[in-house]
Design a protein that fits this description.
13 helices, 302 residues, 8% strand, five-stranded parallel sheet, alpha/beta, single chain
Length: 302
Amino acid sequence: MLKLEQLATEKINPLTRHIDTLNTLELAALINQEDAKVAPAVARELPAIAAAIDVITDRLRRGGRLFYAGAGTSGRLGVLDAAECPPTFGTAPELVQGLIAGGQAAMFTAQEGAEDSEQLAADDLAAARLNEKDALVALAASGRTPYSIGALKYARARGAAAIALVCSPDSPMSREAELTICPLPGPEVITGSTRLKAGTAQKLVLNMLSTGTMIKLGKVYGNLMVDLKATNQKLAERSLRIVMEATGCGRQEAAAALDSTGGHAKLAIFTLLSGLDAESARQKLAAADGYVARALADLKQD
């Protein structure tokens, strides 16, 4: 195993050696310049990201779930992405789950020692009943965090898809994973502070994994989040605007359609576009696996 100082995430950034001598605007500009290197690094991993989306989508279509597992910043990013799926895409809370070394307390207070246990990851996944239908994405910027390695080992032993998201090449995690996504944004502004560029790179990848999967599962129509749950006033207003945008109808018609479908934006859209009643529309959508465009195309063929 590489020594700590040999890791890509631990190298000294020669461009920021004197960041402590800069004025506020200069140091902010320097951090911004370094951040600009993240998106190109992620772009170089697009083939691997696309492959991961396809793997995850296949598992979820077969009744599986998606798990993220990591420690520290990486773990928190996974929990964040998982938590956003139910309100954005109307998924059940158990469909996408985030596990972090040290449990819930680690979201708010660092539990650094927890990341050193492979067994802890196995115990967490066993408690979640990970199985061969599921997909796991293990995260660690260094690619060598024991908790994340343990998660990958357990996933493979259980027959789940095992994907690594790291920011260091040729890592121990890559050797345990079936598929590795490895953006390399370069040394951090502050040496070893992987909550910076590495964390940003991981967040961008997670955005694509969950969003891409949900698109392929029919939870987006055009670029509208038609399966969102209107759990507050803002989201209720967003649902209304989504129905209006998708159908071209007025506010009152959109409100009536939402009322007739129990507030379900996708179903409201399809009733308006198809002319079907709510129950008939529900059946047609189900037959089209939830894809509005496919259900509309099926209607034309009937």
